[in-house]
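Subject: mismatched residue count in predicted assembly?

I count 227 residues in my input, but I want to confirm that the predicted structure covers every chain. Input:
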Amino acid sequence: DGGITQSPKYLFRKEGQNVTLSCEQNLNHDAMYWYRQDPGQGLRLIYYSQIVNDFQKGDIAEGYSVSREKKESFPLTVTSAQKNPTAFYLCASSRETREDGALHFGNGTRLTVT
Amino acid sequence: AQSVTQPDIHITVSEGASLELRCNYSYGATPYLFWYVQSPGQGLQLLLKYFSGDTLVQGIKGFEAEFKRSQSSFNLRKPSVHWSDAAEYFCAGATSGTYKYIFGTGTRLKVLA
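Triage response: the counts match. Full output below for your records.
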């Protein structure tokens, strides 16, 4: 079955360390996204990419970085510059068509930084 | 500014009762609209979507939503709730050509046996 795989499910890091979250999709979708979810705040867009080797900042990109070297992969690095990195991170993908722009989500990575 | 609002943070219903979750949007033009459901610790699953055409949209798990332009609303409904429907529900909007999705803050549904 096609889908989006995020790994690991749980991640623990010490403050000051960079950490990379993995996201892989086999849906052949052009667009990929990273969202951050905090209780009571809905989903906030960190970065998105509509094509390989190109990506755009979302609403809360500070302290994060991404790469899109392959269509299937969109890893997110949480750097030590991110002030409050503990959160639930969701990766998503979508087609670039007018008729099916729905987001498809992975099962998320819960990051805890102490 | 574009926005999606879910006025109810928590809703509790009895099993077998009907359900309506509210969603209001503010966009310059008619957006694409979506409802997602999230179980604890999981990703979001698409319930249904509205792009154009028929304003009553059928989704999975027996859910439906009605787009009302005059009220800027896209409320989610289910005639008879099951205990397994307990989850958090998110409404989202997107503008054609941008694929920048705006999510509401979610409504947590509790189902009483």
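The two ends of chain A are 36 Å apart (CA to CA). Marking this ticket as 'not a bug'.
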